Amino acid sequence: MTPPRRHLGLIGMLFASIGGILGSGWLFGPLYAVQLAGPAALVAWAIGGLAILFIAVTFAELSASLPLNGGIARHALVAYGQTTGFLTSLAAWLTFTVIVAAEVQAVLQYASIYWPWLTSTSHDGTHPLTGWGFTVAAVLWILFSIVTWVGVRLFAQVNGVLTWIKVGLILIVTISLYAMAFEWTMFDDLKEGGFAPDGWNGIFRAMAYGGVIYAFTGFQHSAIAAGESRHPHRDVPLAVIGSILICTILYLAVQLVFIGAMRQTEMPHGWAHLTFKDQVGPLAGLATMLGATWLFILVFAGAIASPLGAGLINLGSSARIAQGMSHDQYLPARAGKVGRFHTPGLLIALSFPIGLFLFLPFPGWQDLVAFLASVVVVSYATGPICLMALRKQLPDHTRPFQLPLAALICPIAFMICGLLIYWAGWAIVWKLGITFGGCGLAFVAIKLPRHQKIDFAGSLWLWPFLAGIVLLAWLGGHGGIDAIPFGWDIAAVAGWSLICYFLALPLKLSARQAQSHLDGIHEARDRQIADFGG
């Protein structure tokens, strides 16, 4: 077996996650979060960062001990078999694909400042693409596909430079807004509803529908790259935890100055209806309102470059996840074949019509990221249970980093996943249920007649988990019928998640089956190395 090339140090690992986290979230999140939670959006960012941290530390142990290409999707296959592995891979693939759509949407919303024909304004304040905007989005996706096909490795080499630029841009914007217009009075003005106009309900909604959870999507890049780390036992945990802490501070700083720089005269109808005239980009609109043309130009340039870069990176990740799905026999083996540039051209091409479809049911950035926040949490939910399962299945396997208090942290992390899905609201959760329910049933229907092993029993925790969350979302007050009072709904979701967590633990594969799947993954990697020289 050819060992993976280990050439990434701590800084490279840290920048992989920071660069993945700092996408369009900082450009739109401050506005959408404050519309839902008012100044308490700061609480949403703090809780969101802590929630993601609980989930992320499970990735640290898994990726340090089993640095597999494809990350948690492959861990799910080893621990719980084909069906769970397929649904986790599907969630990971959808995550990266939807991120591309969201980043393209972000670019076009900011670009419509100068080219208003790219987007329109709907009655609910979102900015769906016009026909011309949809055409431009298609062209951008084609360009992404071409670059991913022939030059993604070159782009990866400049990720460190791009990350420094993004961090520098955020710091300049934050310091400038604080120096020019910051006022503490904006945080407790009773005229605008006080610090938390909609209480905890608004805070929780901001986490899912305000872009907070979406903004942290990307921390897993260092976990995925664990196989290339020189010191995974040290660098993976530091990169995962460090990236989340650093980006939480940056997001809090942007949100703080955004709120403090507002003027009461610009909000005649309160935080919930905060808008900027003729400006669909909140930071650009704020810079214009303050008369800082130079800051507007800086924000606009960053708003174009940063999402484009993030979209390109994530399309490459989407293709690699799909390639792993072909290796694991979820997709035809031919689809994962690589060509002259050592990239899966067919999978990249197939992502194009799928990506364009994402602009149709979710017409604005906020709708896209709310759906994405739920999809990505489904893949996150397998982390805690896979960690506990693999400790039992592979007890003698070397674990350079072992999560302390895992028996306590893992169930808490799983409950957090259930709550994050629920807080996206009924309008998003029912789409999530249909997506995974339909794909899961189709997978089983295709495999069973061929008598192929699918390890369906290992997924029996996942179906009731998702079905229960969908039902509770319908019964709850986040777009549902409001049959369960606020507070009790949180208790119900947390309790149901905990039941499903303990249901999942005994459904893991046997040690022999887990080792068999792990050997299969290694064999698939060795075949690719033999066929294409690594």
How is this structure best described in words?
With about 525 residues, the protein is mostly helical. The protein has a single domain (about 10-425, about 510-530), classed as Amino acid/polyamine transporter I, CATH 1.20.1740.10. It has helices at about 10-20, 25-35, 40-65, 70-80, 80-110, 130-155, 160-180, 200-210, 210-215, 220-225, 230-260, 280-290, 295-325, 345-355, 365-395, 405-420, 425-445, 460-475, 490-505, 510-530. α5 packs antiparallel against α13 (about 295-325) and α5 runs antiparallel to α15. It is globular and about 65 Å long. The protein starts with 9 loop residues before the first helix and ends with a helix.
The radius of gyration over CA amounts to 22 Å
CATH topology: Amino acid/polyamine transporter I
Tell me the count of domains: 1
N-to-C SSE string, H for helix and E for strand: HHHHHHHHHHHHHHHHHHHH
Structural class: mainly alpha
Give the percentage of residues in beta strands.
under 5%
Main sheet overview:
none
CATH architecture assignment: Up-down Bundle
Task: List the uncertain runs.
Answer: 1-5
Question: Roughly what is the average pLDDT, rounded to an integer?
Answer: 78
State the shape.
Answer: globular
CATH homology superfamily name: Amino acid/polyamine transporter I
CATH class: Mainly Alpha
Q: How many strands?
A: 0
Count of alpha and pi helical runs: 20
CA-CA gap between termini: 12 Å
Question: Helical percent range?
Answer: 55-70%
